[in-house]
Each structure stands twice: as C-alpha cells, then as structure tokens.
Specification:
The chain is an alpha+beta fold and 140 residues long. The protein has helices spanning 26-38, 78-88; strands at 13-17, 43-46, 68-70, 74-76, 93-94, 103-111, 117-127, 130-139. Strand 3 (68-70) and strand 4 form a beta hairpin.
Length: 140
C-alpha cells in the first residue's frame, strides 16, 4: 500500500471480509488475512453470517463469530486454529515464501531456554473451490 502521509491518512480498514460460502473455510480466511497483511491494512473485521439452522453465528451462544460451536460445551471449529495462530504469532512472525499461488501460509519462530528454535506455520491449500488449513511445526 502506498504511503499516503502527505494527505494524513493514518491507515486503511476493511469493515467486513469473508463471503458466506468461505466464512468457515480455514484456508480461505488464512488467504484473506495474509493478503490483507501484505497489503498493509491497519484493521480488518471478520464478517458475521447467520447459522444454517437459523440465528447468528456471531451472537448465538457467544460463538465468537462462528469460531466456536455450542452443544452443552464450547467446541473450537476448524476456523478457530487460524485465528488462534494469528494471535499467538503477533510480534514473532517470520517471512514465508511460497512458489504455489494456490497456497497461503503464516509462520512464527520461538526459541526456548536451550536455544532451540521452533518454527510453527499454518498452511492453507486448495481443495476444489475451498481451502483447508493445517498447522506445521518444525524445530532446528
């Protein structure tokens, strides 16, 4: 994103992202997040959609915008891992380079007291018309 300091623009925001068909797709949300971050967006808010059975995925049973389901207890949905990874990686991110445009990835590094560095990545890959995402952990 170009620098708009000359017109005093402090940042750019996306009010809502995530079309209804992709809303619960971990890989698609990972792709949106990584693209928005690389574009330099300041803020982006996840869209709120209704549940297939009625009601709101955002407000019913405190599902945190569909990240959790409730059936007597809260259960993380597949999409939860993407947002958990986004939170724990803050300030620890490492660059990820992909040769395949159908992939999206985010990674971070942590070192323990022994000096062992653990790199944790989450990678999204196309499955038909939707992405799936899975965490990958390596140590060096």
């Amino acid at each position: 994103m170009p620098d708009y300091a000359s017109i005093s623009l402090l940042g750019c925001m996306v009010n809502e992202y995530g079309p209804q068909l992709e809303y619960q797709s971990p890989g698609m949300m990972l792709a949106y997040i990584t693209e928005m971050e690389s574009a330099g967006l300041s803020i982006a808010c996840r869209t709120c959609w209704g549940n297939p059975s009625g009601g709101s995925a955002c407000f019913d049973n405190l599902s945190i915008s569909g990240l959790l389901s409730f059936d007597g207890q809260y259960v993380p949905q597949g999409i939860y891992e993407v947002y958990r990874h986004l939170g724990v990686s803050k300030g620890k991110r490492v660059d990820v380079s992909l040769d395949d445009s159908t992939l999206a990835a985010m990674a971070y590094a942590e070192s323990n007291a022994s000096g062992v560095t653990k790199i944790t990545a989450i990678v999204g890959a196309w499955e038909g018309s939707l992405f799936s995402a899975a965490p990958v952990v390596t140590q060096r």
